[in-house]
């Protein structure tokens, strides 16, 4: 650790990650586990995308947004996990300076897309349940594409803003990142520059990409629940709840795991524990999303059955 920290404070060519374990036997187990989880994540989300594209019954706003969410999940996981798997296999924890900034940029783009698409899906559910007669007019194809485009542009802006902060930095206090990927918050903590300006920017980003989306989701579900409670028949209530149940579960997983990582980093001094906690929202949550939407969604099940019948 001493040799890592004293490499250079002015010109950094590479960073070092925190490994999960130095035990060779455990590393082999971790390699197999993470590789299996990554393949399940990619194949599961890819299946959702292919089903939505190939089945005309799923060409609706809800599944258009779900397709984009699965695409963002695949990108989100693929920016970090393959590098982590290779590092475990080669017993290396090194990443170049350029590679680190590239990974951070892709992480922010895909992570913000996840965040904003979940908010857009909550809005879609709000319109479907609270304004069903005007749903086709409000959620027309042009507006759907506009909402996804705005989410993507906002994600690019977030990534650009972080790069504008980090690119001029020439002084780092250390080169060991206390995570298994180039976490933007960890990188900012390593800089020698004025941290007050960084904190102000990070708080503003947190408000735009944290507070506003969560507020939008909470408001949407407040309106959704209020509308559902006014439905007289139990069957109608069940159908309405089942429509948004999968999305609500994914939202709880995404924000719950992110909050857990934040609390873990705040109260735990162990870098390794923080890295393990980060696995929840970088690998576990994207892996579970296809199962949640396929197991709890009749339309996806029917689409899968139709596809299997066509193949057979």
UniProtKB/TrEMBL annotation:
Question: In this protein, which residues make up the domain named G-protein coupled receptors family 1 profile?
Answer: 44-293
Q: Write the signal peptide boundaries.
A: none
Q: Which Pfam families match?
A: 7tm_4 (PF13853)
- The reply to whether Ribosomal protein figures as a keyword in the UniProt entry is no
The record's Gene Ontology cellular component field reads: plasma membrane
Keyword set for this entry? Cell membrane, G-protein coupled receptor, Membrane, Olfaction, Receptor, Sensory transduction, Transducer, Transmembrane, Transmembrane helix
Transmembrane region(s): 29-51, 63-82, 94-123, 144-165, 200-222, 243-263, 275-295
Q: What one GO molecular function would you report for this record?
A: olfactory receptor activity
Annotated membrane topology is:
Multi-pass membrane protein
Which compartment or compartments is the protein found in? Cell membrane
Q: Which CDD domains match?
A: 7tmA_OR7-like
The entry assigns this protein to a family as follows: Belongs to the G-protein coupled receptor 1 family.
Protein name, UniProt field: G-protein coupled receptors family 1 profile domain-containing protein
Species of origin: Oryctolagus cuniculus (Rabbit)
Q: What is the lineage of its organism?
A: Eukaryota, Metazoa, Chordata, Craniata, Vertebrata
